[in-house]
Write a structure and sequence with these properties.
Elements (H helix, E strand, L loop, with lengths): L42 H7 L22 H6 L2 E4 L2 E4 L6 H30 L7
Antiparallel strand pairs: 1-2
């Protein structure tokens, strides 16, 4: 309350991300409905599809002779599962080399701190006061 001067912040209780599904099919209300006509794709869907990340590595060559697999690794890394409205990310793999360096650094820090304390206590015991 102190940072916002007692006023509520916008979108603090409601998300700004729209979770609606939008149809890619172009709907023209002026035309007569033809059940056998091939559906047209909306301009929005065409514009958003081209730059989007794709992982087409398992698409057959017959249906797509030039599969785009540039975003496969990225999409694998952001897999999310929703359970009761809570977003749960997939378990990340641990890096063994990084874990080893963290362990070595922690042990070295503790040993160095212990050695510094030992030297400090040894110096404190060895002081001679010449004024006495």
């Amino acid at each position: 309350a102190e940072l916002s001067f007692g006023k509520t912040l916008p979108y603090s209780s409601k998300t700004i991300i729209d979770s609606e599904c939008y149809s890619c099919q172009k709907i023209d209300e002026n035309e007569d409905y033809d059940a056998y006509a091939e559906p047209e794709i909306s301009e929005f869907a065409e514009a958003i599809y081209a730059p989007s990340g794709k992982c087409e590595q398992y698409v057959s060559y017959d249906s797509n002779p030039n599969p785009n697999s540039n975003a496969c690794q990225y999409l694998e890394g952001i897999k999310m599962v929703r359970n009761d409205g809570i977003i749960v990310t997939g378990s990340g793999s641990s890096n063994k080399v990084a874990a080893a360096f963290i362990g070595i650094f922690a042990v070295s820090f503790i040993l160095l701190g212990s050695y510094v304390y030992y030297l400090k206590s040894k110096l404190d015991r060895g002081r001679i006061h010449l004024s006495d």
